[in-house]
Write a structure and sequence with these properties.
This protein is of the alpha+beta class. It has a domain of 189 residues. The protein is globular, with a radius of gyration of 28 Å.
């Protein structure tokens, strides 16, 4: 049978849009992979953080780092409130000492460094230490003391960044103690239609220690240390519980580095208006293009 006999019929169906698989061909057209698109980080502060676990033989590195850190970057009242609960905070401006960098590049002491993209004005969470065994600590808030029973509890920090001006950021830190077995509870939530519906929600603010919140100003590249205050006390406090092992053979330290994604050179050129010749601007564009393409 000559296949050319069916050519007029196929042509007619194509022109009339009657082929049954035509629509499916259009729907299955490949779409751009969203994972390959660059993130918009114009309103984002990067927080690189790690929890270091240090044995006794590395205690000298820890003490050397604290001796060089700026512990006066916090308002005095906030610093005193943290110290009363066994916690201290220090800052390294733009660079960290070799004693700390040695620990940060070691997989043994720094096994799981991570990065968080914190949006301006929104809370991000910095995971902290786990208190596995049940214990009771003495918590001091606004000059008053109370016992706080902890069992399978995680100490974490909510941090909210705000941009004050170019190159300077304001950070609000709020410690929180959350039980590992905390379950979501049903609550009545108003839907978009105006009706109330049951929804499972977890109360994230139940363990927030607002009386121990602190603020600080940082620049991209600054390092922040959060660890135990080693003042001698006759009771167990928050810092002892989460940063020091019961045996005294190891100690934990939280390290956070702040950074921002740099702008492209072409965007920075606009700050100079017409002071840079067009030929030089074109040269910069060629350089950027060669860097992207690898040529």
């Amino acid at each position: 049978m000559n296949p050319c006999r069916f050519l007029p019929l196929v042509t007619f169906l194509l022109m009339g849009g009657c082929l049954p698989f035509e629509e499916s061909l259009v729907r299955t057209e490949p779409q751009p992979n969203s994972f390959l698109k660059s993130l918009d980080e114009t309103n984002v502060l990067r927080l690189d953080f790690a929890e270091l676990t240090l044995p006794v033989e590395k205690r000298q590195n820890l003490l050397a780092a604290w001796n060089l850190a700026d512990e006066n970057s916090l308002p005095l009242e906030m610093k005193q409130a943290l110290n009363a609960n066994g916690i201290k905070v220090g800052v390294f401006n733009r660079s960290a000492p070799d004693e700390l960098l040695e620990l940060l590049i070691s997989k043994k002491y720094c096994p799981n460094p991570r990065r968080i993209h914190a949006q301006m004005g929104k809370q991000a969470i910095i995971p902290g230490s786990l208190q596995e065994k049940g214990t009771t600590i003495l918590l001091e808030e606004n000059g008053h003391q109370r016992n706080l029973e902890l069992k399978q509890t995680v100490l974490a920090f909510f941090v909210t960044p705000q941009k004050k001006r170019e190159g300077l950021f304001h950070l609000l830190w709020v410690p929180t103690c959350t039980p590992v077995d905390q379950r979501a509870t049903p609550k009545a939530v108003k839907s978009s239609t105006g009706n109330f519906e049951w929804d499972l929600q977890e109360d994230k603010k139940s363990g927030m220690l607002n009386a121990l919140a602190w603020t600080m100003e940082i620049q991209p590249g600054d390092f922040i240390l959060i660890g135990a205050n080693h003042d001698k006390k006759d009771h167990i406090d928050l810092g002892n519980c989460f940063f020091q092992s019961p045996s005294g053979k190891s100690e934990k330290l939280i390290v956070v580095r702040c950074s921002q994604k740099p702008q492209a050179v072409s965007k920075n050129l606009g700050q100079f208006d017409n002071q840079i010749p067009l030929a030089l601007q074109a040269a910069w564009s060629d350089v950027e293009k060669s860097l992207r393409t690898g040529n």
